[in-house]
Design a protein that fits this description.
Blueprint lengths: L1 H9 L3 E5 L5 H10 L3 E5 L3 H8 L10 H9 L3 E3 L10 E4 L14 H10 L8 E4 L7 H11 L10 E4 L18 E5 L2 H11 L6 E4 L2 H31 L4 H8 L23 H10 L6 H11 L1 H15 L8 E5 L14 H11 L3 E5 L23 H6 L2 E4 L8 H7 L3 E3 L11 E3 L1
Parallel strand pairs: 1-2, 1-4, 2-3, 4-5, 5-6, 7-8, 9-10, 9-11, 11-12, 12-13
Antiparallel strand pairs: 6-7
Helix pairs in contact: 1-7, 2-4, 5-6, 8-10, 8-11, 12-13
């Protein structure tokens, strides 16, 4: 154990990061920047080729940072045999839901199976993927033990949930506190040694289960509160009250209130998904997480609510949705990023198309609609001009990127369905959704 800790303290350790996406890539850059040799492993040949060429495939991560890491010794590979060279293996792989809204653990299990033949004494394995409490013990532990080493003595196992907020300039990998739980006290000490050089504040907890539950609580907290304010939005709208004005006013209270704002639904790789990891696991204990599931139902219904407002607005203009040309403004899941995962904008587009509308989109961060597992549109981003806006029957403001010219949109759009509260003053052509 002490030899492993000393390697991290002296930065002689080789860091292996498995999964080079929105979580793994920033982590790689941080370790490389502070002097560690980093090996990145990913099954995506295209990602590996881009990184080895010093290029980034994530908009908010500059290619020059990747190029600098390459010049400092970072290399990407699809070869899992390279696992043996690493002193730490940090697993940053997806944990989506299947079509039954149950955890899909295939990426975690397949990755663990892939590294298992090459594990050796002195290594630490850290899972960062968001998952249900018990995953590290139930899925990783038995597989790591199959390498013949005793966990906590010959090899070390920890769970440290990722915390990333893409597009937020106020936080970076270094400044976001890192929660970590170890399978044994020795595992925890080695895990702390792994993260302390790279992260300003490491927060140890008593077990991997506690660390897994911490991540779920963080995201369930957001999901429930967003569900609450989305439900309040519907009530306020029926009463003729602007919910955004109400939230702003409530936010002046200096204690006991945190401002959450409504929107067209939940997006991203965490908040729409993570709560269901706990609801699924709770059933094993005979528990029904009604509060969490109710918020999920409210948030899931938001795209249909927005499309309902669109249909009302078109009807007021003497038009049906069928045959109308509708521009969806912003299709990334949050402002100022290119991340499309679980974006409610895409569901809005599908609902419009299913009801006979002719849908298009404009997003400066997504020039071409990407290939997605479940959603298919052969579209490119429309330019925002006075002529193009006037040619659409309606504009649905779904993601409020800073790069949009909102005054241009307001001036030339016949109808705007505003799901983000960008237009606070009453406007004849704006319907709040």
């Amino acid at each position: 154990m002490q030899a492993s800790i000393a390697k991290f303290a002296s930065k002689e350790a080789v860091i292996g990061i498995v999964g080079l996406g929105y979580v793994g890539l920033p982590l790689m850059l941080r370790y490389s920047a502070i002097g560690f040799r980093v090996i990145g492993i990913d099954i995506d040949v295209g990602k590996v080729s881009s990184l080895n060429a010093g290029q980034s495939y994530i908009e908010h991560i500059a290619g020059e940072h990747v190029a600098k890491a390459r010049s400092s010794g970072f290399e990407a590979t699809t070869d899992f045999k390279r696992v043996g060279e690493c002193d730490a293996l940090i697993l940053c792989v997806p944990t989506p839901l299947n079509k039954y809204r149950e955890p899909d653990m295939s990426f975690v299990i397949n990755t663990t199976n892939a590294i298992k033949p090459y594990l050796r004494a002195g290594q630490v394995v850290s899972l960062e993927s968001t998952t249900y409490p018990g995953t590290t013990e139930e899925e990783l532990l038995p597989r790591v033990q199959e390498c013949g080493l005793t966990v906590g003595e010959g090899i070390f196992l920890v769970y440290s949930p990722e915390r990333e907020d893409p597009g937020n300039p106020d936080f970076e990998t270094r400044t976001i506190p890192k929660v970590i739980g170890g399978h044994t006290p020795n595992c925890l000490q080695v895990g702390i040694a792994l993260y302390e050089p790279a992260i300003d504040q490491v927060v140890p907890v008593s077990s991997t289960k506690a660390a897994e539950m911490t991540k779920l609580l963080e995201n369930i907290h957001r999901a429930v509160n967003i569900g609450l304010v989305n439900e309040m939005k519907i009530v306020a709208d029926r009463m003729g009250i602007d919910i955004f004005e109400v939230v702003d006013a409530a936010a002046t209270k200096p204690f006991g209130f945190t401002a959450y704002y409504p929107g067209p639904g939940l997006g991203g790789h965490c908040i729409p998904i993570d709560p269901f990891y706990l609801t699924w696991k709770a059933r094993e204990y005979g528990l029904h997480t009604r509060f969490i599931e109710l918020s999920g139902e409210v948030n899931k219904a938001m795209p249909e609510y927005v499309v309902g407002k669109l249909m009302d607005g078109l009807n007021n203009n003497g038009k049906a949705l069928k045959g109308s040309r509708v521009l969806v403004l912003g299709i990334a899941y949050k402002k100022n990023v290119d991340d499309m995962r679980e974006s409610p904008s895409v569901e809005i587009m599908e609902l419009i198309e299913a009801k006979g509308g002719i849908v298009a989109y404009s997003d400066p961060h997504v020039p071409v609609f990407p290939q997605m597992r479940e959603h298919h549109f052969s579209l490119s981003s429309e330019p925002l001009t006075a002529e193009s806006l006037a040619s659409f029957d309606a504009v649905v403001l779904a993601t409020d990127h800073d790069r949009f010219d909102y005054e241009l949109v307001r001036t030339y759009s016949p109808l705007i369905i505003d799901s983000r509260g960008k237009y606070r003053a009453p406007e004849a052509n704006v319907i709040k959704a």
